[in-house]
Amino acid sequence: MASDQHHGEAAEKPLTVLLYASDRGRRDNVRLALGRRIAADLPEITVLEVATQPAVLSTIEAGGIDVVILDGEAVPGGMGLCRQIKHEILEGPPVLLLAARPDDAWLATWALADAIVAYPVDPVRLPTALADLVRRSIAAAPSAQP
Fold first, then answer.
1. What are the Response regulatory domain coordinates in residue numbering (predicted)?
2. Does pTM top 0.90 for this prediction?
């Protein structure tokens, strides 16, 4: 029942999604594809948009981020940034990478990404992949401590 309690707590507050892309148009496309809720069984989302690597790192380090979406084509690249997050931030949030080329899947593995979605952004595939990642993260989280 602890997982039900944890899920109930998660349902009360919005999920915070950190979205990194150096291109504003790309951020707009992703935000529109995600909508306000990525799945019926998950809470609404709040999207925090950032355009720089330092903003990504400082926002994650400040806490409160449930999941991160990184643009693999951003400058600097989301792939290297993902690897940096995984190596430098203890218990950081799960990361979904957006990749322009199918051949980038191996780079996403190198970057230690938790999920990868290909461009162009698909308004069905992206929210589904993000929802799956959030559910896995919730299931893997330790039970709330008393």
1. 16-134
2. no
Pick the CATH number of 2-140 from 3.40.50.2300, 3.30.1330.20, 1.50.10.10, 3.40.190.10: 3.40.50.2300
> Do the beta carbons of residue 98 and residue 71 sit within 8 Å?
yes
Token digits of residue 67: 């999941």
Half-sphere exposure of 14 (CA within 13 A, CB side): 12
CB of 38 closer than 8 Å to CB of 134:
yes
Interatomic CA distance for residues 58 and 101, integer angstroms: 29
Total Cβ atoms within 10 A of residue 144: 9
Write out the two tokens for 55: 């903003």
